[in-house]
Amino acid sequence: MGLFSRKPVFCAVCNKELKHKHKPKKEWNINGRLCGDCHVDKMQEFYEAKVRQPCVNCGIIKKISDLWEPRWQWDMEGLLCKECFDKKEEEFVRRKNFCSLCGTKLGFVRYNTKSRWKVEGQLCKNCWDSEKAKHG
Q: N or C, which end of the chain has less CB nearby within 10 Å?
């Protein structure tokens, strides 16, 4: 055991010992590293859209090329179909641009709720003042 010796690493698919490690894409749902042959095979499957996967929201099974990746702000894992993506996008824009309680359009100044208020989203000044008076 030398100073720079490392444990051998094996391919996550075929279990061969790796000389050069390839990192799999997160859409492939593979934990670990891949050998060159398995990496090329997975790339072909992905880009030829042979792989089918369910939508995270509704469960409809479609080709990966027909599914959409969610925005990072949504804090989701997996892929969405076009209809679910559009619904989620519309909800995201509504929560971002309108008051959560009264529905008025938010201007430049927005007020974030306190966690103990149990209100999702941002508030206008009037609603924030009323919630602050109510909960303290």
A: N
